[in-house]
Design brief:
The structure holds two protein chains of two kinds.
Chain A (H helix, E strand, L loop, with lengths): L5 E4 L4 E5 L6 H12 L4 E5 L8 E7 L2 E7 L5 E5 L14 E3 L2 E3 L6 E3 L4 E3 L22 E5 L2 E5 L7 H5 L2 H9 L7 E3 L4 E5 L3 H9 L4 H4 L1 H9 L17 E5 L5 E6 L18 H15 L1 H9 E7 L3 E5 L3 E8 L5 E10 L4 H14 L7 H14 L8 E3 L16 H14 L3
Helix pairs in contact in A: 7-8
Chain B lengths: L5 H16 L3 H5 L2 E9 L16 E4 H11 L12 E15 L2 E13 L6 E14 L2 E11 L15
Parallel strand pairs in B: 1-6
Antiparallel strand pairs in B: 1-2, 3-4, 4-5, 5-6
The chains are: A alpha+beta, B alpha+beta.
Chain lengths: ~425, ~160
């Protein structure tokens, strides 16, 4: 009999989550098998590998991998483990190498994965076939517009089909670039949060928390000359925002901007001298995309979740953020800034500065998000005596769904429980 | 003002450490020049430039002042209650002098406790550019280099490190 973690009652307009889902080691083991080993999982961006032979190493869904370009420039992903006795074959975080040599016994692999050298190979007499002993790769490895994903599930649908309507929101971010090419900026923010990884999914799109959790950020904006409207009757946020279901467990917020955007909604923090260039950026967008789409690029903020654990925030700046569980009560977060490849030095500096007004471990907002998630996790120690998380906000609302409701959080949890309840 | 000595620099470092550990942040502001900046580079690019590299933190004086307002607010949830910090500073060196500017460096360990949380140890180097202003030595640039390869279990840099 399969286990049910959610109560999803359209008649009572009630949605409850069993808090065991956020604290249990058994649930995490199940998630590794039914979610992280079954879905498409983000690995990295093509721009991190500029030239042939460039590589980075990282852990994806608990697996150490090498994300690299081979000598021909093709992008590849190998499991970072020697076929001989299992050691990591690459220990550097990034660099350029034609081959990876295991320090243990010296087995050497070309960066296309092929086993090139085995010291003393004449000692192998039986079935020893070097052509079968190249570095292993994930079952599937595909990209959408430079965002590379792996899947450990050989039977999964193609990435493009998996992403479905989420591609429209990825495209909207990439439209910032005249050439349609974005790049990851140097400098990764890597930090742990002592909370279940799914709380970060919720937090990334939950706009209900903004006025309370981020009161000091709103003050900072207001002190810096950003006009923060008092929310209209029945609202909790200064401007209207939507929560949009993109299918397959993906969802996004889609909000009218009030906070300034490097592309291209000026606020005083950017300085008077930024105005002419920002006007030019907007004019280019209007000319290239037409006034309507340019307005969407410039004047809306969107926090997109690609199920299960990739978040693309297009708000105060563009963030690529991914996170993996490290036990049920802890996650490891990695966040990067993303910008157009042709951006001027001044515009790039503005983008990075704007990033730090809100995001990251030294930002004016993220540390308070981290605090909120950690307080949730600490409170959840009571889960056996206070079992259900209440997530019914906005349930039964007709028409457009609001970013300050919990519609999009329910989309996540429905998809999550569907996968967890599968055999 | 006579040549800046290591003792002068140590006095400044120690005074600053006391102000920060005691959360006398307005007093700390008094040690900075009117054009001061405060940087925490990312762990993977400690020598980066904030114009081209995503930092953990890169404040000009305007944002330093805003950061202090935030830190002193009870609505700064990450630092309410305030972390208890204790910083130990050593290996103080004068690196170079150019006109009224003096580049100095030191090692530091900053222990941080919060509520009943286990200790977090921030270990690294301070690299400052100081400016001589009359008989005073003020901080013009404050760069905090963290030795860890990633923030990892250090979590946020939600206080003045």
């Amino acid at each position: 009999m399969s286990r049910h973690y959610i109560v999803d009652d359209p008649v009572k307009q009630q949605f409850l989550l069993d808090r065991e889902a956020l604290v249990s080691g058994a649930v995490l083991a199940d998630e590794m098998a039914k979610i992280f080993a079954k879905c498409w999982i983000y690995v990295g961006h093509a721009s991190e590998l500029k030239k042939p032979n460039d590589f980075v190493t990282r852990k994806v869904a608990g697996r150490p991998v090498i994300f690299c370009r081979d000598g021909r420039g093709d992008i590849r992903c190998h499991f970072n483990t020697c076929r001989h006795r299992g050691a990591l074959v690459c220990t550097e975080p990034e660099g350029s190498r034609r081959a990876f040599r295991c320090i243990y016994h010296g087995w050497t692999y070309r960066n296309d994965g092929a086993l090139a050298g085995v010291p003393g190979s004449e000692a192998y007499r039986g079935e020893f076939d070097k052509t079968q002993l190249g570095l292993r790769s994930p079952a599937r490895f595909e990209s959408y517009r430079d965002f590379w994903f792996l899947s450990l599930n050989p039977d999964i649908v193609p990435l493009r089909d998996y992403l479905g309507s989420a591609t429209e929101y990825i495209d909207l971010i990439i439209d910032q670039s005249p050439s349609g090419q974005m790049q990851i900026v140097a400098g990764a923010q890597e930090y742990d949060v002592a909370a279940n990884w799914k709380l970060m999914v919720e937090n990334s799109v939950d706009d209900y928390h903004l006025p309370t959790t981020h009161a000091t950020w709103l003050n900072y904006m207001s002190n810096s000359g950003v006009k923060i409207e008092v929310p209209k009757e029945g609202m909790v946020l200064p401007t209207r925002g939507l929560a949009v279901d993109l299918g397959n467990g993906h969802f996004t917020t889609d909000n009218i901007n009030f906070r300034g955007r490097p592309v291209a909604a000026w606020i005083p923090i950017y300085g008077e001298e930024a105005k002419p260039e920002m006007d030019a950026i907007r004019a280019e967008l209007v000319a290239r995309l037409g006034p309507e789409r340019a307005k969407r690029v410039c004047d809306t903020n969107r926090n997109l979740v690609v199920f299960p654990n990739l978040v693309l925030n297009d708000g105060s700046s563009v963030t690529v953020r991914t996170f993996f569980p490290d036990g049920p009560g802890k996650m490891h977060v990695t966040a990067w800034a993303l910008g157009p490849v042709e951006e001027s030095q001044a515009a790039r500096a503005r983008r990075l500065d704007a990033f730090l007004t809100f995001y990251g471990p030294g930002g004016f907002a993220t540390p308070d998000d981290v605090e909120a998630l950690e307080l949730v996790q600490q409170g959840l120690a009571n889960w056996q005596d206070d079992r259900w998380t209440e997530m019914s906000r906005g349930m039964g609302r007709e028409g457009d769904q609001l970013n300050s409701d919990e519609h999009h959080l329910r989309i996540f949890w429905r998809r999550w429980s569907q996968l967890m309840e599968s055999a | 003002m006579a040549e800046v000595t290591r003792a002068d620099v140590e006095d400044l470092f120690y005074r600053e450490a006391a102000l920060l550990d005691e959360w006398r942040l307005e007093g700390w502001l008094g040690l900075l020049t009117d054009d001061a900046c405060y940087y925490v580079p990312p762990n993977d690019h400690p020598e980066g430039d904030p114009k081209t590299t995503l930092f953990i933190l890169a404040d000009d004086i305007v944002r330093i002042r805003e950061r202090i307002k935030r830190l002193m607010s009870p609505e700064c949830h990450a630092e309410y209650p305030h972390s208890r910090t204790r910083r130990l500073i050593s290996n103080v060196r004068i690196v170079s002098t150019s006109g009224d500017l003096v580049t100095v460096a030191s090692n530091f360990v900053c222990y941080r406790y919060r509520r009943y949380e286990r200790i977090r140890e921030y270990v690294g180097a301070y690299r400052y550019i100081l400016r001589r202003q009359g008989s005073d030595l003020r901080i013009k640039e404050r760069r905090v280099l963290i030795d860890a390869h990633e923030l990892g279990s250090l979590g946020s840099v939600s206080f003045i490190l």
